[in-house]
Amino acid sequence: MAFESLGEKLQSVFKNLRSRGKVSETDVKEAMREVKLALLEADVNFKVVKEFVARVSEKAVGEAVLESLTPGQQIIKIVNDELTELMGATQSRISFSSKPPTVIMLVGLQGAGKTTTCGKLAAAVRKQFDKRPLLAACDIYRPAAIKQLEVVGGQLNIPVFAMGDQKDPVDIAKAAVEHARKHGNDPVLIDTAGRLHINEELMGELANIKEAVRPNEILLVVDAMTGQDAVNVSQSFNEQLGIDGVILTKLDGDARGGAALSVRHITGKPIKYAGMGEKLSDLEPFYPDRMASRILGMGDVLTLIDKAQEAFDEKQAAQLEKKLATQQFNFNDFLDQLQQLKKMGPLDQVLGMLPGINKQALNGASLDSRQLATPEAIILSMTPKERENPAIMNASRKQRIANGAGVRVQDVNALLKQFEQMKQMMKQFSGHKGKKKGKRRMPFGFMP
Fold first, then answer.
1. Domain 304-446: what homologous superfamily?
2. What are the residue boundaries of the structural domains of the chain, listed by start?
3. 331 CB contacts (<8 Å, ≥6 apart)?
4. How many CB atoms neighbour CB 131 within 10 A?
């Protein structure tokens, strides 16, 4: 995950500050020197680092901080606020046209993941804003680029407008917008051609498409793993074409995070989305405050809640709550919970969003959604009667279930014990919750 190394180093610096009852100006200077080195190692732009450290130092050596009873906490808050400001302060949304269709141009160099991101963004917009997007295939140069977009569109059930690779990209873009206008599609997402390097030919074609369709948004797709190159590319595209925002891809990889911390400051343009995985659903709105919180080890509970609400069905949650109240919770319900938990993504990412989780401990653990396959296999090996009434389990039934699931009888016993413990916990949760009327239902209450 991006920022992992940076986060660990910053957390180590602040752990030292927090352990001291009093903090002197010398302590702050030493801490800021370590922060500066950590940011430079994360490939953050030197100019950005210099200005960031200067702002934090100025606020951290103030009398109100140094004389505070919790100076370490005060300095962490200053760093958190400055990191948030550095990445854009607030989440920047896509600007939709009052007269549909909204036109969104995706631009970038080859290899940044532009075509796949085009499909991901269309899916995100459809879900987030209840839109009917259209993908436009305007990359006529890269072999199979059109086919790739059509495959992505087919997987997402989103229409793709294409005219082959013999037409001018400007004409394709204009025809796509007209098609969307006639068929009620909004927005139109234009997948433009990239190059290995920025050149006059590329910029000329993009400028012509921009002139022809007058896009509401020009979003630059950059690979977070390219570090300072991503910042330089962003600066060049912004100066020559004029962009409205950035989508960072591969932020879930081993990127050092420098691009995310530099691009907004250097270009003045916000990061609007971040690619957090290879699935077509792995594109998240970029929240500067949440990202700053992740970097400083304070978790990201809001994104975790968003993921849970997407994965967990409200109707099922209400039915389950009713079952708990009447003591009717069974293995069918347990199986539903396991399957919905898997939708939230890799378990290490989910746990990494919880405050206070030791990231180094997670690194040593084998955390994979496939670990949920064993209890799932055991439950699926039960008969409908056994799932509804686990009390009927005897030795022969357990042996049959173990054989069917390819596990030991001990594993079946362990799951039965876990199920009973969970049932008791949920019974207490349900009874406690009933006393608090009007409280918003949260999916976490039913997670195994």
1. Signal recognition particle, SRP54 subunit, M-domain (1.10.260.30)
2. 4-86, 103-298, 304-446
3. 379, 382, 386, 387, 388, 390, 419
4. 19
Q: Which of 221, 234, 259 is nearest to 121 (CA)?
A: 221
User: Alpha-carbon distance 95 to 104, whole Å?
Assistant: 9
Phi, psi of 134 (to 5 degrees): -130, 130
CB 228 within 8 A of CB 49: no
Q: Quote the pLDDT of residue 447.
A: 43
C-alpha span between 55 and 405 (Å, rounded):
59
CATH topology of domain 4-86: Four Helix Bundle (Hemerythrin (Met), subunit A) (1.20.120)
Task: Compute CA 46 distance to the chain's CA centroid, rounded to the nearest angstrom.
Answer: 27
Token pair recorded at residue 112: 């940044």
Q: Fill in the amino acid letter for 184.
A: G
25-41 and 71-86 are packed helices; what angle lies between their axes, rounded to 10 degrees? 30
| 376 contact partners, CB below 8 Å, separation of at least 6 | 335, 338, 339
Please name which of 91, 16, 445, 121 lies closest in space to residue 300, comparing C-alpha atoms. Answer: 91
| pTM for the structure as a whole | 0.70
CB 260 within 8 A of CB 231: no
pLDDT-flagged residues of the chain (< 70): 1-2, 21, 63-64, 66-69, 253-256, 297-328, 342-372, 425-448
Tell me what pLDDT residue 330 has: 84
Is the domain spanning 103-298 CATH 3.20.20.150? The answer is no
